TrEMBL record:
Main location: cytoplasm
Taxonomic lineage: Bacteria, Pseudomonadati, Pseudomonadota, Alphaproteobacteria, Rhodobacterales
Protein name according to UniProt: Ribosome hibernation promoting factor
GO molecular function: ribosomal small subunit binding
Biological process terms in GO annotation: negative regulation of translational elongation
Entry's localization field: Cytoplasm
Role: Required for dimerization of active 70S ribosomes into 100S ribosomes in stationary phase; 100S ribosomes are translationally inactive and sometimes present during exponential growth.
């Protein structure tokens, strides 16, 4: 497994990098077949260290976790435990996913934009209804079944996931509703 371990405005020593590689390797290989790469980022938030880890699996699925603690090793250990819990919870489905899908998940390129939040005041009228784009990035949209999309959303902890529905070949959305259930948007085709 390839590792990318970095720190945002903090130095990451070799001892921490070795600890992350050994511990994450054991945790992930216990539950997932053939992980391909891992990205671990450490940062500071006030008096705490924050650890964010993302592991890409050979099936195309991605697992991610985030944790914080007052010590950097404790932040990583908490993050690793969260990821291990997610992978343990989805172990059977991940194995079934790999068995049913001999080829990795197909990914399609797309553009992703970050829009500036409009300042909401009662007195000021916006000059234009066009939002201001403050960042543009490339992203990937996976071709998944609805069940796989829900599992992917749960593994990454994301509130919403856009995916291409394998059965209908159209773009769909799954999202976590305020009541805790999962919503699924499946646009009707014109034909």
């Amino acid at each position: 497994m390839r590792y990318q371990i970095s720190g945002k405005q903090i130095d990451i020593g070799m001892a921490l990098q070795n600890h992350v590689q050994e511990e994450l390797d054991v945790a992930v290989k216990k539950y997932a077949e053939r992980p391909t790469d891992a990205n671990v980022v450490f940062s500071r938030s006030a008096h705490e260290y924050v650890c964010e880890a993302t592991v890409h699996l050979s099936t195309g699925m991605t697992a991610s976790a985030k944790a914080s603690a007052t010590e950097i090793y404790a932040a990583f250990d908490a993050c690793r435990d969260k990821m291990e819990k997610q992978l343990r919870r989805y172990k059977r489905r991940l194995k079934d996913h790999y068995r049913d899908r001999p080829e990795p998940v197909e990914l399609f390129g797309a553009s992703s934009y970050i829009l500036a939040a409009g300042e909401q005041t009662e007195e000021a009228e916006p000059e234009t209804l066009q939002p201001i784009i403050i960042a543009e990035m490339e992203t990937k949209i996976a071709s998944l079944s609805v069940g796989e999309a829900v599992m992917q959303m749960e593994l990454t902890g994301a509130p919403v996931l856009v995916f291409r529905n394998e059965k209908k070949n159209g773009v769909n959305v799954v999202y976590r509703r305020d009541d805790g259930n999962i919503g699924w948007i499946d646009p009707q085709s014109d034909g």
